[in-house]
Amino acid sequence: MAGMNVMQMTRDAKVLRLITLVLLIALCVFKLVLTYRGLDQPVAMDQAQIARSLASGDGFTTKFLRPIEVMTVKKQAEKDKETPNFAQLRDSNYAPLNVVAMAVALKVSGYDDFDACRITDGGHTYAPDRIISATSTIFFALAVILSYMLVARLFDEVVACATSVFMILSDLMLDYAVSGLPQMLMLCCMLGALHALLTSIQCYEREERYWSLLYIFLCFVCVGLMCLSGWMSIWPALGLLLFCGFYFRPSGSYLLTGVLVLFLFLVVPAIRNQLELGSVLGNAMLGLYNSFGGGEEMAQRAADLNNAPLQSTGFVMNFLGYTFGQLRSLYVNMGSIIVVPFFFLAIFNRYRSNEVQTLKWAVLGMWFFACIGMALFGIESPMNGSQLAVLFTPIFTAYGISLVFNFLARSQYEGASFNQMRGLTMFLMVLVSAGPFLSTLPRDIYMGIWLGNKGRPHYPPYYPPALNNGLVDVTNAEDVVVTDQPWAVAWYANRRAMWIPTRVEDFVTYLEPALVDGGLKVQGFLITPSSHSAITTEVTGAPGGMSGIVNNMGDFAPLAMEGKILQITPRHNIALADAFAENVGGNNRSQPMGQVVSSRGRFSNRVPLLGAEIMYYGSSLSSN
């Protein structure tokens, strides 16, 4: 009888694994083929255009020019008595590993050649978008497999399969899977680190100190790779170091191993930042403006950080606000999985297995430091290139499920009744967690079938054909387009794009001369829904309406409003920017916006790329 039970459990485990695998493949294909809408994350587009440069043989160079970076490179070049090279500007904003993965995918698929993959079939989506999304989807599938293996080691096959199903049916996890963001690669590295850490703990308990130290080395190799996938991973790495210092003895050898491995992984990027930007941390500290100042975006768009000073007086309140915001948004940021918060109850549960009991403290320490880092850098949005909460979703889910099963095991149900109750409980929890995904499923299927191969872009604010065809036709590849959507211009149009500053004086006095010194010139301005659509205020949290446009665009707000007014009053050919060609009273010596961009300015040739929604202002003297 016992042998028959074992055989039945083995068959059940195989069936569960098969169902989970089929569900994983089906939903990945579903998101990549039937309902695919293209990229919608600025970080993903920015990394993708860097990856294309890498795949094309141009190295880690970027076509996205941030004003603060332009001025930093210019000052460093003056210090070195060299000419600033903006045509081959090396990226210093992103960890390299995800970019390398994208570059390999683009090279293998043949989409590293921009001219060979233009949108020519009347579709609305860009073919290389799917390659970028497929890359992160592969990492998502690998993460599901790694989480299954880890949870099966900690608990059993049922908990492992349930954890995988929760991940697969989570709307947020699926969005990350096709986003092109580095989180899925970071998750794979983190799960690899937890696998090695679990083995190290087991060896330590058996007093096999040599093997324990070896697996700690492998653990921090995975953590180092995670840091090279996303710089924010340094925060959970600090939590892991702290855990090693408290748990292992002698702590010095384990701590030293971890510190040395991380140092070896991070020393090369630090040296490169020092040589190119004069700072070991590069532009990473600009992220602090989310908590200290008016936001990282405003800092990057400033020619001088003195115009975007850190507000140290309000930092404590902002930091506390972001800290409590992490707790408030925990459920959403981890995929809206109902059992995730149960992890904190599992902290107080005493597990029979010492490995399970110990690993939860390591995970808690990593999560705690991750929360500190996200609060310090002001990260709240569930979809963000620096979001770390999603990395803890599988392990939090596993501990939450185990706690639920522990509660059920202490009930009066036994045998078949217990299995039925456990199955019903799991079904209800999965149904609730999958609610966001299931609620939009019919609409997504209908839209996917109705639109067919044309696709449904993320509009507003992104409409790839307007950039991939329209903008490419009216611009050249050598000079610079100033825009509110530089990441999309660099990716979809393969044009050098500078983020539009908030001050006209910055553009005229500092930025344009710096570009000229580097052998480039500004060929036009591009205004998109990123500056005047309501979606911008939803994403950034800025006020809506006219106040939102003014806060976002500064001196160039009239230019953004011009397209909106034209859209509202299509019968009237209103040139709002013309009203800003002169200063009031003549006391202000700075050049008015209208003298730069308007029918009376240097960039007077107005070209609608998607009606008034996407408008390009080119130079009348341009020969494009």
Can you give me a brief rundown of this structure?
This protein has 624 residues and is mainly α.
End-to-end CA span: 82 Å
| Helix/strand/pairing category | mainly alpha
- Number of strand segments: 6
Low-confidence residue ranges:
1-9, 535-541
Q: Can you count the helices?
A: 27
Overall geometry comes to globular
Largest sheet: 6 strands, mixed
Helix content: 55-70%
Strand sequence of the main sheet, in spatial order?
1-3-2-4-6-5
Overall pLDDT, averaged? 86
Portion of residues in beta strands equals under 5%
* Rg from Cα: 26 Å
Q: Which properties best describe this structure?
A:
six-stranded mixed beta sheet, mainly alpha, disordered N terminus
Structure description:
By secondary structure, the chain is mostly helical. The chain is built from 27 helices and six strands. It has a six-stranded mixed β-sheet with strand order 1-3-2-4-6-5, with helices on both faces. β5 and β6 form a beta hairpin. α8 packs antiparallel against α17, α14 packs across α17 and α26 runs antiparallel to α27. The radius of gyration is 26 Å and the shape is globular. The protein starts with a helix and ends in a 6-residue tail after the last strand. The N terminus is likely disordered.
